[in-house]
Design brief:
Elements lengths: L1 H5 L1 H32 L5 H34 L8 H29 L6 H7 L1 H16 L3
Helix pairs in contact: 2-3, 2-4, 2-5, 3-4, 4-6
Length: 148
């Protein structure tokens, strides 16, 4: 534990960088889905291009970034980064769990596109694109401003 405490600032920096990479993917993937749903015919070259982009974004950037963000966050939790009696801490945890759920929802949609069975229009993905934004605002306000 003492070794981890020595590197707390590095762990926090790693956490912030991982969250930034994860959020970039959470903002970009629904936008790819909008264009995929609106412009690509199943089985076309454009469909295949979108599938490669979506799969690589999830596998190479989003999944590792989410895992690192969670691991670094859990390490900080064990080092006492949270005041468990404060509402802000619980708001952040619930919003991060919701963000993870949004990630899972997006991953499931990628599988639908890959199988050629997407049933959603671009509008659904445009609307869903706001979910990570709202959660990010809630998390940042909870942690930085701590209004509750």
């Amino acid at each position: 534990m003492d070794l981890l405490r020595t590197y707390y600032d590095w762990i926090k920096a790693l956490h912030i960088m991982a969250v930034m990479a994860w959020m970039a993917g959470l903002f970009y993937l629904p936008r790819l889905y909008v264009y995929h749903a609106e412009r690509a015919v199943v089985g076309s070259e454009l469909d295949q291009t979108f599938q490669i982009m979506e799969e690589k974004l999830l596998r190479v950037i989003m999944n590792p970034a989410m895992i690192v963000a969670w691991l670094a966050g859990l390490v900080m939790l064990t080092l006492g980064a949270f005041d468990w009696g404060s509402v802000w801490a619980w708001v952040k945890i619930l919003a991060v769990v919701a963000m993870t759920g949004a990630h899972g929802w997006m991953a499931a949609r990628r599988k639908e596109f890959a199988a050629g069975v997407n049933i959603r229009k671009g509008r659904a993905y445009r609307l869903f694109n706001e979910v990570p934004t709202v959660l990010m605002v809630l998390i940042v306000v909870a942690v930085v401003v701590r209004p509750f």
